[in-house]
C-alpha cells in the first residue's frame, strides 16, 4: 500500500501576484505505483481543468487568486488501499494602503507622557511596525528608553516628552511573506511639545498593558508588552509571581517586551511588570496559559490476522486541550463517532 514520502505544507501566498503559480507537494511510495487525487475543503477536486493540474502527485495551481483559499489534502491510491495526507491550508497575504485622510495633531507639555496610534490598514498575516520622525528613514531608535513601538497594535509610546520631540510622526508597517515583502506608511501626525519652566516629576503609570490571559503553544514564543509614563523615565523589570523566572528570557526581564522562547508547561503562571523611578512605582500582572498541539504517544502498526479473528489497534495521543481521535479507512472516515484518546 502507499506510504507518504512528501506531504503538502501550509502556505501564505501574496494576493494579486500576476501570473503566479503554487505547487502543493505530494509523493508516495507504493507497489503498484499510486494514483493521486486531491480534496479541497473535504470535496474531491476536478483536476486537469482550468487552473488545476497534477505534476506527478503534486497539485499545481496557476494564476492563483482568493477563491483558492482553503484546506487541501492529497490522496494516494493503489489496489492495496488509499492514504490521505495532512491538511495544508492555503491563505492569501495582503497589506492595503493607509487611508489618505489627514491625522489628528496632538499637543503635550514637556515632561508628560503620550502615545500616537498607528491604526494599520487591513492586512494578513501580522505586521511588523516601526515609526520615523519628520522624514524617511529617520526611524526612532529602539535603544532610546523614552520610546516604545508596540508590535501588537503598532502604537508609539513616549514616556516623557522633550521639546525636541516636536515634529511629524509616521507609522511604517511591513508584511513579510515567503516570496515577497511589502511596506506602507500613514500620512503622519504632528506632535507639539509645549515648554514647561519646571516640568513636574511624576511616579510611573503603566499605560501599555498585556492581556489578563495570554495563550501560547508549546515550542512557540510568547511575548508580553508593558510600558509606562513617568518623569524621570521609568525603568522596567519583570518577575514571575508564582515561581522562578525562566532563565531563557535573558535580558528581556528589563525590557518593555518579555520574550519567552520555546514555551513549555513549566512557563505557565502569573507574570508581573513593574515600572519604577525615584518618585514611586506601578505594577501590572497577567497569566500565561500554555496549550499543546496533538502528538502521538502510541500508534498502530501493520498487522496480518486470520479471517473472522479479532484485531485491536490502539492509538493514544497527548495534547492540551485533550485531543479527540477519528479513524480513516482508505481515505474515508470509518465511523462518525469522535472518541477521546
Written overview of the protein:
The chain has 341 residues and is mainly β. 0% of the residues lie in helices and 49% in strands. The protein contains no helices and 33 strands. It has strands spanning 3-6, 11-14, 21-24, 27-29, 35-40, 43-44, 52-55, 58-62, 70-78, 81-84, 88-95, 106-109, 114-116, 123-124, 128-133, 147-149, 156-158, 167-176, 181-185, 189-194, 202-208, 213-217, 222-225, 227-231, 235-240, 257-260, 269-277, 280-298, 316-320, 324-325, 328-329, 332-333, 339-340. Strands 2, 5, 6, 9, 10, 11 and 14 form a 7-stranded mixed β-sheet that branches. Strands 12, 15, 18, 19 and 20 form a 5-stranded mixed β-sheet that branches. A hairpin with a 2-residue loop joins strand 9 (70-78) and strand 10 (81-84). The radius of gyration is 27 Å and the shape is elongated. It holds the Pfam family Ig_3. It comes from Ataeniobius toweri. InterPro entries: Ig-like_dom, Ig-like_dom_sf, Ig-like_fold, Ig_sub, Ig_sub2. Keywords: Immunoglobulin domain.
Amino acid at each position: 500500500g502507499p506510504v507518504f514520502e512528501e506531504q503538502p505544507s501550509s502556505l501564505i501566498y501574496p494576493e494579486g501576484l500576476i501570473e503566479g503559480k503554487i505547487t502543493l507537494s505530494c509523493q508516495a511510495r507504493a507497489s503498484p505505483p499510486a494514483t493521486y487525487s486531491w480534496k479541497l475543503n473535504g470535496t474531491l477536486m476536478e483536476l486537469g481543468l482550468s487552473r488545476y493540474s497534477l505534476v506527478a502527485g503534486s497539485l499545481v495551481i496557476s494564476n492563483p487568486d482568493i477563491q483558492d483559499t482553503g484546506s487541501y489534502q492529497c490522496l494516494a491510491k493503489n489496489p492495496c488501499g488509499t492514504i490521505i495526507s495532512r491538511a495544508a491550508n492555503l491563505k492569501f497575504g495582503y497589506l492595503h494602503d493607509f487611508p489618505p485622510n489627514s491625522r489628528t495633531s496632538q499637543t503635550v507639555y514637556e515632561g508628560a507622557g503620550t502615545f500616537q496610534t498607528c491604526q494599520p490598514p487591513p492586512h494578513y498575516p501580522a505586521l511588523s511596525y516601526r515609526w520615523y520622525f519628520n522624514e524617511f528613514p529617520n526611524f526612532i531608535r529602539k535603544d532610546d528608553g523614552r520610546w516604545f513601538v508596540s508590535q501588537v497594535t503598532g502604537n508609539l509610546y513616549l514616556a516623557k516628552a522633550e521639546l525636541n520631540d516636536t515634529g511629524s510622526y509616521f507609522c511604517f508597517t511591513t508584511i513579510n511573506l515567503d516570496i515577497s515583502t511589502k511596506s506602507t506608511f500613514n500620512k503622519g501626525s504632528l506632535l507639539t511639545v509645549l515648554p514647561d519652566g519646571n516640568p513636574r516629576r511624576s511616579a510611573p503609570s503603566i499605560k501599555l498593558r498585556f492581556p489578563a490571559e495570554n495563550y501560547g503553544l508549546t515550542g512557540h514564543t510568547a511575548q508580553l508588552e508593558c510600558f509606562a509614563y513617568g518623569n524621570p523615565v521609568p525603568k522596567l523589570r519583570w518577575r514571575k509571581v508564582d515561581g522562578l523566572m525562566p532563565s531563557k528570557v535573558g535580558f528581556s526581564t528589563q525590557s518593555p517586551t518579555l520574550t519567552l522562547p520555546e514555551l513549555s508547561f513549566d512557563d505557565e503562571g502569573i507574570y508581573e511588570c513593574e515600572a519604577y523611578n525615584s518618585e514611586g512605582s506601578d505594577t501590572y500582572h497577567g497569566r500565561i496559559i500554555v496549550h499543546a498541539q496533538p502528538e502521538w504517544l502510541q500508534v498502530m502498526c501493520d498487522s496480518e490476522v486470520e479471517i473472522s479473528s479479532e484485531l485491536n489497534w490502539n492509538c493514544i495521543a497527548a495534547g492540551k486541550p485533550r485531543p479527540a481521535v477519528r479513524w480513516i479507512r482508505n481515505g474515508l472516515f470509518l465511523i462518525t463517532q469522535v472518541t477521546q484518546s
